[in-house]
Specification:
single chain, alpha+beta, seven-stranded antiparallel sheet, 7 strands, globular
Length: 144
Amino acid sequence: MKLSGSYEFNATPEKVWQTLTDPTSLSDCIPGCEKMEALGNDEYAATVSIAMGPIRSKFNAKVKMVDLKPYESYGLVIEGTGPSGFVRGESLVKLTESDGKTTVDVDSESSSGGLLARVGQRMMESFSRNMMDRFFTCLQESVK
C-alpha cells in the first residue's frame, strides 16, 4: 500500500526537524503509543495499541531513522508485530522551507499480513491515512 501526505508547519525547518526527531514528541503524537524507548543509533522500540474496525490489537514495533540529512530529509523503516498480524513499511520524509514556514512531505509504502491484511485494502488505507493525519496534526500543534 502506498500513502502520501503533505503537512504545513508554522515554523522553520530546524524547529520542525527537532520535533520530528525527538522521541518524546513522537511518542506523544503517535496514536495509541503506550511506550517508546531509544535503542541507540536512531532506532526506537514502541508499543502501540490500535483499533481498526473489529480489530483491537497491541503491536511491538521497531522504528529506525535512516539517511538523515538534517533539516532536509530522512527515511523511516518500520516493522511491527502483534497478535493480529504484522506491518512493514518505509517512508521518506522531506522538509521544504518557504516564507518562514515548513512543508513536510511524506511518501510511504507498507505491507501487512495476518488478520490485518484480511480486513481489506480500503479499510487499511483509510485507517493508515487517519493515523498519519492525526500524527502530523499533533506534531503541528506541538511545534507552535
